[in-house]
């Protein structure tokens, strides 16, 4: 195998990370520096010098414009996340975050979880808007993490996808793994984790369809990857093959994907609760343009 592919499997790192180690002359085979495209040889002595671990990411309490609290009680905070906001800090991300926005607004959240992800029980992509829940109490954190793991949470998304899915109601059952060539993307791969998406077309237009999606699993980019694999990418999702001309015509600069509704058993009393988010202006405007076109 190539050095980058083999070491990525051996170390559990991305190929990009391994390539950086090789580019720094920190991979040796039998005492000789090798590059990322060189080949690993059976029986050879392999030496790798790993870089220093990254500094821990801290939460900065910075107000987030457009972050709306839909519901709050002693155990949970339900928010409507705007576009361009990450859920929590991560290496390389310098923009606004949900946890930072809540901290700036004086909201207390659970201390369970990694320091930068305290209270976070699920995530939405930076470019995806909509409803999500954050745990305030430690008991709520444990209960909600368990609920998401056991798939007892009802996660409903609305998406506008290109073309017309056939059948108009169905299930996409295809494993997802990190893309073999691009670390920032994911793809349907036999080596991936089980991923199941249920969908139904609720409105059809000339060039696209509005679909309601129920996620059974919650893989990164799952809806985007699954519909791209069907050759019906989310409108505006240029990363996964959407038509830039259609996106420009509809005035969308990100994927048309919205976390519409979230239902779960409340961690305090077990009662089923449901929260809904309205479409933000950019998505609502694109939808109206499609309706006007017929």
Please, could you describe this protein's structure?
The chain has 7 helices and 14 strands. It has 294 residues and is an alpha+beta fold. Strands 4, 5, 6, 7, 8, 11, 12, 13 and 14 form a 9-stranded mixed beta sheet that branches. A 3-stranded antiparallel beta sheet has the order 2-1-3, with no helix packed on it. The longest helix is centred in the last third of the chain and has 13 residues, at 281-293. The protein is globular. The model has no long low-confidence stretch (mean pLDDT 93).
What's this, in brief?
This protein has 294 residues and is α+β, with helices and mostly antiparallel strands.
Mean pLDDT: 93
Low-pLDDT stretches: none
Global outline: globular
H/E order of the elements?
HHEEEEEHEHEEEEEEHHEEH
The number of helical segments is: 7
| Count of individual beta strands | 14
Which value, in Å, is the CA radius of gyration? 21 Å
Residues in helices, as a percent range? 10-25%
* Percentage of β-strand residues: 25-35%
Q: What oligomeric state do these chains adopt? A: single chain
Biggest sheet, in brief? 9 strands, mixed
Which structural class is indicated by helix and strand composition? alpha+beta
First-last Cα distance: 53 Å
């Amino acid at each position: 195998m190539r050095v980058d592919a083999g070491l990525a499997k051996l170390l559990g790192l991305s190929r990009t990370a391994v390539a950086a180690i090789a580019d720094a002359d920190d991979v040796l085979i039998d005492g000789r520096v090798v590059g990322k495209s060189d080949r690993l040889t059976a029986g050879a002595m392999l030496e790798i010098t790993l870089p220093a671990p990254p500094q821990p990411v801290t939460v900065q309490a910075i107000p987030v414009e457009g972050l709306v609290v839909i519901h709050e009680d002693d155990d949970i905070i339900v928010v409507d996340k705007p576009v361009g906001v990450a859920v929590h800090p991560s290496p390389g991300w310098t923009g606004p975050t949900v946890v930072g926005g809540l901290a700036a607004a004086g909201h207390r959240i659970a201390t369970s979880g990694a320091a930068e992800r305290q209270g976070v029980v699920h995530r939405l992509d930076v470019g995806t808007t909509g409803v999500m829940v954050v745990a305030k109490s430690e008991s709520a954190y444990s209960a909600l993490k368990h609920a998401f793991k056991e798939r007892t949470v009802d996660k409903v998304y609305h998406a506008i996808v290109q073309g017309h899915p056939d059948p108009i109601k169905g299930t996409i059952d295809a494993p997802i793994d990190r893309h073999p060539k691009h670390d920032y993307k994911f793809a349907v791969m036999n080596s991936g984790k089980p991923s199941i998406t249920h969908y139904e077309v609720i409105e059809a237009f000339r060039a696209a369809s509005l679909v309601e999606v129920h996620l059974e699993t919650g893989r990164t980019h799952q809806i985007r990857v699954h519909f791209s694999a069907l050759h019906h990418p989310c409108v505006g999702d240029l990363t996964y093959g959407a038509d830039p001309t259609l996106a420009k015509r509809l005035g969308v600069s990100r994927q048309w994907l919205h976390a519409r509704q979230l239902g779960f058993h409340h961690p305090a009393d077990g009662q089923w609760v449901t929260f809904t988010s309205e479409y933000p202006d950019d998505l609502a405007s694109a939808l109206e343009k499609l309706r006007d076109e017929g």
